[in-house]
Specification:
Blueprint (H helix, E strand, L loop, with lengths): L1 H18 L17 E2 L5 H4 L29 E17 L2 E20 L2 E12 L2 E7 L13 E21 L4 E22 L7 E24 L4 E10 L2 E14 L5 E16 L2 E10 L3 E10 L16 E10 L9 H4 L1 E15 L2 E15 L6 E12 L8 E16 L8
Antiparallel strand pairs: 1-4, 2-3, 2-18, 3-4, 4-6, 5-6, 6-7, 7-8, 8-9, 8-10, 9-12, 10-11, 12-13, 13-14, 14-15, 15-16, 16-17, 17-18
Amino acid sequence: MRNKLIIVIFVSLFSFCYTATGQKNINSPYSRFNIGTLEPQGSFRSFGMGSVGTAIRDNSSIYFLNPASYSSLDTISFVFDFGIDYRKNYLTGGSTKYSSDDINFHHLIMGFPLMKGWGVALGVVPMSSGYYNIFGKVISTDEGYDPNIGEYDVFHGGNGTITKFFIGSGLKVSKKLSIGVNMTILSGQLNRTNQFVFADYYNVFHSSTTENLELVGINFDYGIHYTTSLKNEYFLTIGASLTSGNNYNSKYDQLSFKYTAFGVRDTISNVSENNAKTFIPGTLRLGISFGKQNKFTTGIDFTTTKWSASKIPGSVNYAADTKSWAFGAEYIPDKYSNYSFINRMEYRIGGHIGDNYLIINGGQIKEYGASIGIGIPMRRTISKTNLFFDFTRKTGSGSNNLDREDYLSMGISLNLYDYWFMKKKYD
């Protein structure tokens, strides 16, 4: 039975790797810029705690943002985590309100030890989404109307996603110190279209611009954990991880042309860069966690990225440096209770606040949110089902005249814990 489970898991890994690039159809105007809307990173256990995880160690969960955590995997164990999420987006601008939603694959992760204190993990997770559809109409009563141009319809649309594949290892080099490294592969494609169609449809030229950005490349994440045991089963862990900045091999095409209703077409400009480079800067994460074994865990993370140093073909002056904080807690009333299922459940709460990497209308976007989560244990095993609910608000300053975005996210993941290479003493 156990061998069959392992086979199913590996088949699932390669099957779902193909679905990992599935488009998230959340309609956000902020996906027009840079590499799109950045997806939150981490497992659903982490999301329920405000996305903390840089300094958390656990034998049944994989915290891939700090590969040093892999050294905490139990000997002869196997951890598999698969999750799907649902997101509802509410966009508010003045008296106008709009909403969109989507349910999709989120992550597929697995980990196992090579020996005591030495673990390996691999998986696939989303990095960014470039989906948006924006329609508008300019008429004679609008403030920006130009009689020399006349009335027109405008369309901005985009699709595509960037996905992260990773494989890494964490090693316990002493009783208190662990180190780790991930090799990550970023791969994806973003497509964008800007189109202007004038009211005098048959007598004028209309305009259209299409953009396509493809990127692929290998990068590395480095992590370190220092953990110490205190009296009465209390513990303290300090962690740090660094994702190095990297130039990714890219292909960028931009085509602008004008056309008529009768099929006449005239190219305005055509840019094609087959050997372009997309520079995505490094990210530094610092964290600390404190708790009591099998009772409670608290954590705080600080994350910073120098996005102003990024170089993304087709996007100029839209990125700013980011700093963000995440904080969360998990409480288990009685992990080994024989009488109460409710007491064995894991209860989580957290929050996050910080900068978004986008600069729009001269101002940087801000975002903040709160989350809750539950870990539901399975019978007679360490395996569990993780659920999280998160509310995040994305907004500019009052002078930016930007729409406000509210995200309601929820997800469910199956976190399986099994044993490898254990021989049965009795049948």
